[in-house]
Amino acid sequence: MAPKVTAIDERLLQLKARFAERSAIQLRELSAKLTDWQYGHCTREDLQTLYELLHRLAGSSGTFGFHQLGQEAGQLEQVIKAQISDSPPLSDLHLAPEIQARLAQLSRLLVTEPSSSAEAATTDLPDTASEQTQLLVLDSSLNELAEALNNFGFKVVVCEELPLHCAHCWRSTSIIIAPAAKLTQVVNWNQQQAQSHHASPSPILCIGSDDSFAARYALAEQGADGLFLQPVKVPQLAKRIEQIKSQQQQPYASKVLLLDDDQELAEHYRLVLTQAGKNVKVMAEPTELLAVLAEFRPDIVLLDVHMPPYSGVTLARMIRLEPDWLSLPVIYLSSEQDRDLQISALAQGADEFITKPISDEQLILTVRALCHRARQLAKLVSSDGLTGLLNHSHIKRALGHEYARVQRYGHNTSLAMLDLDHFKGVNDTHGHGVGDLVIKALAQLLQQRLRTTDHLGRYGGEEFVVILPECSLAQAKHMFEEICYHFSQLSFMGNNGTFHVTVSVGLALLNDFVSEEHALNAADAALYQQKQAGRNGVTCYLPHAPASDSPE
């Protein structure tokens, strides 16, 4: 059976036809101009135009399946390059007939060369928003643990016995949690289900009490993905679950900004990367670069070195003039083969050099790796060390960005400020180590129960800030009332047994204020009102509320 042709496949074929048609017309026009070369009438500008066309063909032909065309165009490109730099220029008039013949050969290859790799590769899985994580707990003795994980926002299914015949239960499971004593049986069942569904086995986290080297070695040998000793510290378990989930799938599509003056090639790359789950924005006019960077905020930038009348090298340096983009990965995607020129270009502010032509599969794998690395580096720079949320400076930067978007598009965006109630008493009574555990628990709960599009940050101490784009105050209030309830149900182990902590929330709508700072002050005022009203709840900003020092 022939493979199904998708809309993107059809669009790629249309781009290939358009590339061939446009290239054939340009080759004929330039070949005609070379007739004047024999009489000394060909200008340096004519040769420069020919050189730029050959440079484009050398870099893009392979992408559309014309591999021989790309190789021969690259060879002829070097001949023309030598003529442009010759002194006196255009001295080898006898080369004109030979070059015309080679241009004619390029035109024939556009028609006759078979296409072998113009289709998009689909080996990469899309980066999609994550669904609610389902946990399969394989022992009723872990009911209390299951209830605690449910408060963190995980969907938990508890089975009294191993569901040997329950295929549906395995298919919908993200992670298995089981007693360490049952690991052998669980591993066998997990592998059987994976084989029958042609999938990878689900990760297994073990709950046990034996902390010896022999016990840990045995669990590792059987394939366990984690061991948590009883009594289980639920926030640590929740953090491990989040780590596994993030490894299984990206929370949202990687963002790629592509600058290339070859319209067909740029559109081809866009379609291929979009089909692979990337969010791609194409630019052909570099004069809008800084505005697009501020609005789109890409994970990486791909740009060609040669984009007459602009230089990709200069554009890379221009990007680095702005402090916000000093760490933004800039990758050259060019047909330039001269290694010295590549190194020189990299020294001007870029991070890597990818040589055209590049296959669709190589492009996908390379971009995925670069985006993943960029995300990891950005997270290291922007994260709070204790919680993994955005740190103070980066949550404020995110607030400024979202305020600018509100001003531009007018959609509702809510802002929340959270504060743990009576937190000083927690530290004084149970110690700062337990206090840190409470802070991490709230961070984990927020990550699990809020949307992937929301910005979460630790503002300082026991204070948190959350920005919710395209979310009304009513919607935000409902979300945080749920969070307050579930957090109050979490149990923490202290010096005198278990205890509970609550959280207060103040909300404000970014749209209502002349600056993000005014909105932040309003959310803080609403938080104070909630503290005065009894804590453990949510208050929306009310105009003319009295200001005062915030209570604990």
Description of the molecule:
This protein is of the alpha/beta class and 552 residues long. It folds into four domains: 7-112, HPT domain (Four Helix Bundle (Hemerythrin (Met), subunit A)); 134-248, Response regulator (Rossmann fold, 3-Layer(aba) Sandwich); 255-380, Response regulator (Rossmann fold), CATH 3.40.50.2300; 392-540, 2-Layer Sandwich (Alpha-Beta Plaits), CATH 3.30.70.270. The chain contains 19 helices and 19 strands. The strands form five sheets. Strands 2-1-3-4-5 form a five-stranded parallel sheet, with helices on both faces. Helix 19 (516-532) links the parallel strand 18 (503-509) and strand 19. Helix 2 (44-60) runs antiparallel to helix 3. The protein is elongated, with a radius of gyration of 30 Å.
Distance between the termini: 69 Å
* Total strands: 19
Indicate the percent of residues in helices. 40-55%
Instruction: Please give the radius of gyration in angstroms.
Output: 30 Å
Examine the secondary-structure arrangement and name the CATH architecture of the largest domain.
Answer: 2-Layer Sandwich
CATH topology of the largest domain: Alpha-Beta Plaits
**What strand line-up does the widest sheet have?**
2-1-3-4-5
Mean pLDDT: 82
What is the gist of this entry?
With about 550 residues, the protein is an alpha/beta fold. About 50% of the residues lie in helices and about 15% in strands.
Annotate the secondary structure layout.
Elements: H1 7-33, H2 44-60, H3 67-84, H4 95-112, E1 134-137, H5 143-151, E2 155-158, H6 167-171, E3 175-179, H7 183-196, E4 204-208, H8 213-222, E5 226-229, H9 234-248, E6 255-259, H10 263-275, E7 279-283, H11 289-296, E8 300-303, E9 306-307, E10 310-311, H12 312-320, E11 330-334, H13 339-346, E12 352-355, H14 360-382, H15 392-409, E13 413-420, H16 423-430, H17 432-449, E14 455-460, E15 463-469, H18 473-488, E16 492-494, E17 497-499, E18 503-509, H19 516-532, E19 538-540
Parallel strand pairs: 1-2, 1-3, 3-4, 4-5, 6-7, 6-8, 8-11, 11-12, 18-19
Antiparallel strand pairs: 9-10, 13-15, 13-18, 14-15, 16-17
Helix pairs in contact: 1-2, 1-4, 1-10, 2-3, 3-4, 9-17, 16-17, 17-18
EC number: 2.7.7.65
Modified residues (4-aspartylphosphate): 304
Cofactor: Mg(2+)
